[in-house]
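Progress report, Aim 2. The chain analyzed during this reporting quarter is listed below.
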Amino acid sequence: MNPLAITPGDPGGIGPDLCIQAAINGDLDGIVIADPELLRVRAKYLNLPARIIDADRYDPTQTKGILYVEAVAAADPLNTPGISQPINADYCLKSIDAALYGIETGKYRALVTGPVNKATIRDAGFTKFIGHTEYLRDYFQLPEVVMMLASSECRVALVTTHLPLSEIPSTITKEKIQAVIEIVILAFQTVFHIATPRIHVLGLNPHAGEEGHLGLEERDIIQPALDALRRKHPQVHIVGPLPADTAFTPSVRIEADVHIAMYHDQGLPVAKYLGFGDSVNITLGLPIVRTSVDHGTALNLAGKGIASTDGLVAAIREAKRLSKGYPHKRIS
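Predicted structure tokens for the chain:
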């Protein structure tokens, strides 16, 4: 099969470190889309004997200690570890674009992304950049995609992603909830091969609104959306809206294939607590497979050789698994 495309992310963060260390460990199964000089400098900085070889010479039987690289030039390949530079923001986005082009042309089979610094990219003038999930949505000109964090303990998908808390209530509509859950249903049926997924949907307010005493969104928006979905998909087990403070207790969590959280910090703290290092960020609704690490750039760890590769290895493993027999040109 064609190799994975791997983007290390922010040059000042731990993404380059993780790619280099994973290669040394024999766990970097794919092509790194990056500036080869940046990787050479970082490998020397880390005192790791990694070999940088052009992607055209890729040999899947010879990967340990080797980074096969498709070159994308960084503005500053000498980027000091621990410093996120706006001058390299364009490089981060061009790396993603190059990886996507490679997938679309059949050179690569799936995308694995390292962490970027969203604030740095916006500070560089890319003011519309919110995150990988939204960037990929717009790249493929899709109305909606879904961010899901998955581990062996739980899966959590989001109705809203990278928004200020004050904007979330007005963003949550019946139509948006239905669109997100439709994507989740199709993904679980076609990619995860779960014909009758069990979907637990969280409320927005404390105690899921407590029958209207703590908010009306559950009664007026979430419940009608779920009722419509139940009528359309009678074979799918849709439960909710559930109080978020009890939805992840062991006895309730075991009954769900996926939880749908209304916003980022309602569901992801639990998912990361239960499976940090094991959990993988998966974008549902794309015509390609995309996975990512479950952590940020960790600037404080960059260049020190102490960052764990577990998250990157998990993302690589999941991308390989999901891309086997992937239904291309269909929703992920």
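The chain is about 35% helix and 15% strand. The CA atoms of residues 89 and 121 lie 5 Å apart. These observations will guide the mutagenesis work planned for the next reporting period.
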